[in-house]
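haha ok so turns out i had the wrong file open the whole time. this is the CORRECT one, sorry everyone. sequence first:
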Amino acid sequence: MTSMFETRSTRADSWAETGVMFAATMMILLGVFQALEGLTALIDENFYADVPAYAYDISVGAWAWIHLILALLLMIAGFALFGGSRVAAGVALALAALSAISNFLFLPHYPVWSLIVIALCVFSIWAIARSGIFVR
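then structure:
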């Protein structure tokens, strides 16, 4: 016969596993979104708005490579997170935060898309932190 405490811990473990799976999927999705941003900038540099008096004067080509590198790292972290490793979770948290920051800086070039990606980054960070992977 199982006690009430075993049922609770099993339920908590299942929530944690679901949170990690969700976060891993979100990280891969974020990587795809970042790749689309980067590829768009490489294919058509005139697609994104030109911001003449912006404090962070980075060319669209540089943004393309920043997004593509982040895309690759986010997808790798997402696939590694499926393994449930604490190290992968820490790296995924850091990369999601870095992705949110890069999209915040990219905000004047393409605001709506950047806000969507920032929201998904924050949601991924929440899912990883809430999953309990760091306390196992």
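The chain has four helices and no strands.
again sry for the mixup
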